[in-house]
Amino acid sequence: MNPEVAKVLKRLHYPLEVMLTCVRWYVAYPLSLRHLEEMMAERGVSVDNSTVHRWALKLLPALSKIFRSHKRPVGKSWRMDETYILVRGQWKYLYRAVDKAGHTIDFLLRAQRDKAAARRFFEKAIAHNGQPDSVTIDGSPVNLAALRDINAEQEAPIAIRQVEYLNNIVERDHRAIKRQTPHESTRQGALSR
After folding, report:
1. Which of 7, 88, 108, 163 has the smallest count of CB within 10 Å of its CB?
2. pLDDT at residue 188 in the model
3. For strand 104-110 and strand 159-161, is the pairing parallel, antiparallel, or unpaired?
């Protein structure tokens, strides 16, 4: 067993399979903690919803670190875009990048859609995956400004492409996320209030 996970599990007293199942379902599907409590009760496992929440808080950082270390290398040509999603009743911006094969490079959830948020996303993605040769973005001026700032600090600058339709890979990839969140009409209604 991985030492990171073993350290986290030291004080947790449920079977590992139960904890991992609950945490996986919590992050993979749009289920509430109470739904998970009911689902586990149907399977004969008595677990409180607050316990599942504590498992998620303890296990997810360790699992994320493990998964990142085993992540396959990504391409050097990135497609980046942001979209908005509803998170616990608040609209947030999800920054995402994929390589030209469609493999996810990185993501970042932010409250604002501004230069600082875009720069933070690029810095995080570069730190975890290395510097790309080129980044394709939409017409967003904040993404362009963030990349130009990063290029000013680099020896070898990143090629910036703002070509319509080259970003379709990441735009289509947003659809899977949008299916799990309220539709745009809900956002328009919320914004008009």
Report:
1. 88
2. 46
3. unpaired
Determine contact, residues 173/102, Cβ cutoff 8 Å. yes
* Per-residue pLDDT tens over the stretch 130-177: 899 999 998 889 999 999 999 999 888 999 998 767 767 676 666 666
DSSP 106-162: EEEEES--SHHHHHHHHHHHHHHH---SEEE--S-HHHHHHHHHHHHT-SSPPEEE-
Is the distance from CB of 81 to CB of 165 less than 8 angstroms?
no
Give me the residue spans of the domains in the chain.
3-69, 77-192
Q: What are the tokens at 41? A: 């009760």
Q: What is the mean pLDDT of residues 97-117?
A: 88
User: Residue 36 phi/psi, 5° resolution?
Assistant: -65, -40
Phi, psi of 132 (to 5 degrees): -80, 165
Q: Would you say the pTM of this structure is higher than 0.85?
A: no
Tokens representing 167?
A: 């970003």
Cβ–Cβ < 8 Å for 145, 137? no
User: Which CATH number is associated with domain 77-192?
Assistant: 3.30.420.10
Three-class secondary structure of residue 96 per DSSP: strand
